[in-house]
Amino acid sequence: MFCECVEPIFTKHEAKNSKYETCLPAGRQCIKIMKSCPLTAANLIYGKQLLRCSSSVGANYIEANESLSKKDFLKCVKIARKEAKETAYWLRLIETSQKSEHERR
Questions:
Q1: Fewer C-beta within 10 Å: the chain N or C terminus?
Q2: Which residues contact 62 (CB under 8 A, 6 or more apart)?
Q3: Residue 12 DSSP symbol
């Protein structure tokens, strides 16, 4: 459910303008998701982590496009991919914690 907005944004050794256009809406969607979550201690921790890594994807992609060498470009794209994967992890964790929360009620 939540993870659809952050399925792998980058393919290996690939970064195009269309990929950047995917980063911004995905980051906005993560903000909306956290605003809709109940205010619990766990969600505060999950939310901070989610917002950090989801916003980092686009920032690292921009940095990759401004790189001075191919090596630097690839490094930045790899970091962006790692952040996208981390975003998917936090989204899955939030989703499963919300499901278990509803099951308890």
A1: C
A2: 20
A3: T
pTM of the model: 0.74
The H or E element spanning position 57 is helix 41-65
Q: Over the stretch 19-73, which tens digit does the pLDDT of each residue have? A: 667 788 888 899 999 998 888 888 899 999 999 999 999 899 888 888 899 999 9
Place of tokens 């195009």: 16
Domains of the chain plus CATH, in order, are: 16-98 (1.20.1440.60)
- 44, amino acid identity: L
Q: Is 15 helix (H, G, I), strand (E, B) or coil?
A: coil
Task: Answer yes or no: is pLDDT of 13 > 60.
Answer: no
How far apart (Å, rounded) are the C-alpha atoms in residues 97 and 75?
33
Instruction: Compute CA distances 98 → 22, 27, 48, 52, whole Å.
Output: 25, 20, 16, 20
Instruction: Count Cβ atoms within 10 A of the Cβ of residue 92 and give its class: 0-12 exposed, 13-18 middle, 19 or more buried.
Output: middle
